[in-house]
Design a protein that fits this description.
Elements: E1 27-32, E2 37-38, E3 40-44, E4 47-51, E5 57-59, H1 69-77, E6 85-87, E7 96-97, E8 101-104, E9 107-109, E10 119-124, E11 129-134, E12 137-151, E13 156-159, E14 164-169, E15 179-182, E16 191-194, H2 207-219, E17 220-222, E18 228-231, H3 238-250, E19 255-257, E20 261-264, H4 266-275, H5 292-306, E21 307-309, E22 316-321, H6 324-336, E23 340-348, E24 351-359, E25 363-366, E26 371-384, E27 389-394, E28 397-402, E29 421-422, E30 425-426, H7 442-451, E31 455-456, E32 459-464, H8 465-468, E33 489-498, E34 505-511, H9 513-518, H10 520-523, H11 532-540, H12 543-556, H13 569-580, H14 582-588, H15 594-615
Length: 618
Amino acid sequence: MTFKKYPSIERFGHEDNKDIFLSNEDTIVIEEKVDGGNGCFWQEEDGIHFGSRNRDLTLEKDTKMFAGRQIQLREHLQELETNEIKLNPDYMYYCFSEDTEILTNNGWKYFNNLNKNTIYLTFNKEENKLEYQKANKLFIYDYNGIMHNIEQSTISLLVTPNHRVLFDYAGQKRKSNWRVREIKDLPKYDIKIPSASIFNGKENINQDFLRILAWVITEGHIKPNKVIAITQSADVNFENVMHIRKLMNKLNFTYNYNNKDFEIDKENSSKIIKYLDEKIHQIPKNLLSLNTENLKILFEELMRGDGHINKKYPSNMNYATKSEILRDQVQELCVKIGLRSCYKLLSNKWGKWFSIQINGKNYCSIRRKDIKEVKYNGKIWCPSTKNGFVIIRRKGKISISGNCEWMEKHTINYTSAPFIIGIDIRLKRAINSEGFGLFLGRESREQEFNRLKIENVPLIWRGTVKEIKEKPIRDFIPKSKYFDGFAEGIVIKNYNRKHPHENYQLYAKLVRDEFKEDNKAVFGNVKNKHSDTSKIIEEFCTEARVRKGILKLTKEEGLKLELKLMAKLPTMITKDILKEEFNTIYDKYKFIDFKEMKQLIPKICLRVLREEIENEPK
């Protein structure tokens, strides 16, 4: 079956759901699409269970605030907790361990030093940059259960099973394409997790003065007569001495050099002391808010003073300091210029110091076998930010990680909705085993929710596929039961037909374009289904071309027929289309959106690859 046979399907269903109207005798159920936070009811031998999972429950009357549901699910479902409903709390948290720190506009903080006014450094995945944001909410719980733990030389992570992890596949030479999964669902092969990105602040400064400030921070001291002295021996570091002398001259500083110390004149010393707020061995907050170019200059000068660069492997660096404050600030600086860092406390007969290992990569490589399940009993916590990703540190090792999810408020205000609306009940929670994961039919589910005194999502229409084809699908969108206006859309359910690749029935949704336009903060721009790029892909990214690519990878390159081929297949198909069809594309079309192409071609490749794997002779 193709979209051409039933063209209306492309307006609301994902391609994997195109078989929803395949059989005229199948029964179709159409329900109102109601938005909110999601959780899951499922049925076991001992009764109905509840946890936070998939699209089976709606709450939060007028926002898509997935973080907010965590505490409110507990509060409101505990009212329903009976012999029939058993809460599964390990699926209701998306949190960090209590010994995890988070990076804020005031440095690294533990959860007990956070409040509603804290501003967090967050990662914007779409634009691949760091931004400061306030949290919409901060969640702190007591927790006794399973946590997932990663312990390696460059990363330490201890989070709940449903915690969202940003990752990409290891071994890729291309620019990282960060993906998101819950840690318990990470792929079964090696991955990489980001640990730094780029911050471009608005603060600016004279670059020569910035370099002098860095030297004061690393090698400066205040003499009794209140002048700044920068220690640097001409016998040992002649190049540094000439470099500092050049900076002084460019700034028109008056200074004396005695082969050991640069003594800066009193006027400019006072200027420096005031700029550093008399804390001359710390990086002031405004310097950590500079633009990217100046942040890199600051790092370069700090490394000249107290750093070491491996001559054989220059991307491996080390910075040494006795100061905890400066240690934390140098790591923050590394995060903001795309450098991975972690620290250790070292000691010898002369004392203790922090050794910060710095690497030119902005990610940590993870062996899948190093992700362990461990028992945990203590506080767990997490903020909820708009960008959805924060910078955390545990045991001196930094990573970018998901936080409690948040989506923008949309325009619908569900004024008359109950707090909980029952949408579906799974037969069992485990959706990957045969017979598990299927949804109860509408009538059986209604009976269960009625017994539990939970309102069922409104039924709009029930009939056969043959009947639904006789009228425009958009005509089914009704006035909402829960506010004065049309519903945001409808959900179409075919309980008779199973998804071709997954173990659940076929569902699809249709959302009003007017609703999408009003809620671009949630949905983004309404996609043009007839764009040049989609036409190019429809014409040239054929199943035959994808199968030919699979054959080449398996027969010519000797790779195994498995989902791991997705690491190469979409790129191969894209290059093949651009190479073989360039003249036709150039003559026939005006515009190619490569971002759209990168989104659509992998979906087709994945569908065809799964079909090939399923059809492979056993």
